[in-house]
Amino acid sequence: MQKILIVEDEKSISGVLHSILSDELPDYEFIIAEDGLEGLKQIEKEDFALVVSDIKMPKVSGTELLKQALQIKPDTTFVMISGHADIDTAVDCLKDGAYDFISKPIDINRLITSVRNALDKRILQKTNQHLKIENTTLKKKVNKKYQMIGESPALKKIQDMIEKVAASDARVLITGPNGAGKELVAHAIHAQSDRSKGPMIEVNCAAIPSELIESELFGHVKGSFTGAIKDKQGKFELANNGTIFLDEIGDMSLIAQAKVLRALQESKVSPVGSDKEIKVDVRVLAATNKNMQEEIKAGKFREDLYHRLSVIEIYVPSLDERKDDIKLLVKHFAKIISDEHGTALKTFDDKAIKALENFSWTGNIRELRNVVERLIILGSNPINAEDVASFVRK
């Protein structure tokens, strides 16, 4: 049962307050403190849904009680009671954090209304706090497949960037070598954004033939080309109210680039073979392993599209730039792979980890995972440096 604290040095008044409020609020337990010092001790001991306090009291005044209590428990809600001569003091109490004040002689209806409103406000604040916590938890909940493992300064820098950019709708260009984890960064941005409940649609621009990428991105209508046997929604439309991730954007044809640029400028797409324009609300994340400045100079990528996509640019370092994370990554992959194969978990001794740290990881994290899988299948338990020397390329 939630509790309400009445702090009043005059027993006749505290008795009246208790009688009135307990009748109106039978679901609350009431505790009476006879002065400010006792009230402060009660607040230190327990959490109260509401504190109703007189201002003029011996030992510790109501104003001092308010200040000290809010330092200890900032969420405490106060309704102050004041005599006519204390109106200025009561106003100062409001500035210091009190919800309301009631002047003496006490108007019972005014008191009941104020107390009920104060309790309603507290319930609303608590609900909002729970929603914020729940929302934060949802934003940070990333599919285990896309967890970012490591504690190196390079990774922490990326995580800080993700946290800053996720809250906005700014377009992000993610750069870095193949296998470094650009896809993980994109998923982390989406998961921590306000669009996390919407779809996350991925498009591998390098895997789609140039003649089909426009249809893939924007859709097509039946009969618009050979093989178009029915209408098809494009990836932009499927990603509405969510995020589209254009992986390997540097491999997109110039014709498709022009269409993407128009979609970004106007927030509209036109399916192939249709004059209809479809409004889309999509956040665009893109990734590439190419040097975009060189691609622009070579005439292979539109500079205006590059500037549209790279409002924020996040560089994902190679594994060789974050070797401090290899030990944690190996442990993480070992657990996942053992679960996938249904085998007992194998560990790696310190010399095996050291041997892995001495490699140059040209294939980055993707290569490391493959190596860990090979060692778990072929190596001893615990996996040692000899296993690494035997089953991993020089």
Automatic annotation (TrEMBL):
The modification 4-aspartylphosphate is found at D54. InterPro entries: AAA+_ATPase (IPR003593), AAA_lid_NorR (IPR058031), CheY-like_superfamily (IPR011006), P-loop_NTPase (IPR027417), Sig_transdc_resp-reg_receiver (IPR001789), Sigma_54_int (IPR002078), Sigma_54_int_dom_ATP-bd_2 (IPR025943). GO terms for biological process: phosphorelay signal transduction system; regulation of DNA-templated transcription. One of its GO terms (molecular function) is ATP binding. Residues 148-377 form the Sigma-54 factor interaction domain. The keyword Repeat does not apply. Keywords: ATP-binding, Nucleotide-binding, Phosphoprotein. The keyword Protein biosynthesis does not apply. The gene is zraR_2. The lineage of its organism: Bacteria, Pseudomonadati, Bacteroidota, Flavobacteriia, Flavobacteriales. It comes from the Bacteria. This is Transcriptional regulatory protein ZraR. PROSITE patterns: RESPONSE_REGULATORY, SIGMA54_INTERACT_2, SIGMA54_INTERACT_4. Residues 3-119 form the Response regulatory domain. CDD domains: AAA.
